[in-house]
Amino acid sequence: MALPISYNFRNLIVRRTTTLMTALGIGLTVAVLLADLALVNGLRDAFRSTGDPLNILVLRKGGTSELVSAVTREVYQQLKFKPGIARDHKGDPMASLEMVTIVSLPNGLDSRGSNITLRGILPLGFELRDVRLQQGRWFQQGQREIVVGRLIAERYNTGIGKQLRFGKGLWTVVGIMDGGGSAVNSEIWGDLNQVASDFNRENGLSSVLVRAADLATVPALINSINDDQRLNMTARTEKEYYETQTISGAPIEYLGIFVSIIMAVGSSFAAMNTMYAAVARRAREIGMLRVLGFSKSTILFSFFVESLLLAVIGALLGIALVLPLNNISTSIGSFVTFSEISFNFHVGPAVMAWGIVFALLMGALGGLFPARSAARKEILTALREV
User: Are 135 and 35 part of one and the same domain?
Assistant: First the structure.
């Protein structure tokens, strides 16, 4: 014969003050973990949503990122006529020569400012990326004009008409672009030749982004570029390149999990104390349950379930505390590009599920021993206790 679940709910309601305090402790622990996971999840989403499966990024052999790569215009001319590269409506190869560097923008917190990725790009580069203008217009070639990513505009107040100083002078913001949830929102784009001239890199550019004719052509084109000794270049898909940058979130993820585990130990002891106190206060009640014919295993299971219910309440509180963070913009420094990546917290179903599982684990650890203590009470001993 099993005890009804309503029995456990009634006990939690009767002891509502203790229930709330214990659940709040569990909830705060869950909130720390979920905030960490939401941050890492948002960063991963930004990188995973960047890139087209048909796009191939070409860097200097041995280059781990565009920032430390070097491509000459001569190599670009040889590369763009490789078989397998798609052509646009004019019949020109879809290959965009680009230059990537870092500029500093004042953030109001650090006098040195924050490192932001500046990309010198050809007009063809717009077509190779899933990006649209949110406001304003695209920059004109040969002009000191730039287009900034949506999150850059929000975080650094760089709206249309704003002038930024880098390179050899002032640049005017003429547009704000939106790359969806991609890393494009964390970049500044300008005319390739003007940017290269400002940084004295007319022939020392960074990368080439090419579009393969179709998915079946992608592996062959990558192998062709990698095996060409004249080019001395290495190629990989654009999506693969950005996915490798998710390592930026690994230290934060590990630190958050470590802190959450430490807090979980404390929360488990709090749940354990609560359940032990409940066992002590309900000694006669336990004795009466035994007299009524409920077995030790039934009582053990009932108290264990009660601890899990307490954990679920804590998990729901933790989720409620973290939900306001969803879609809030933040940023993190990338160990690959040495620049700041802006993205949004993402509290998705998977993150919330992890919070519930984590809380149930705390509840199980905190409830197991008190439940055993309740189940092992002898009937006469329990009935005599006040």
Answer: no
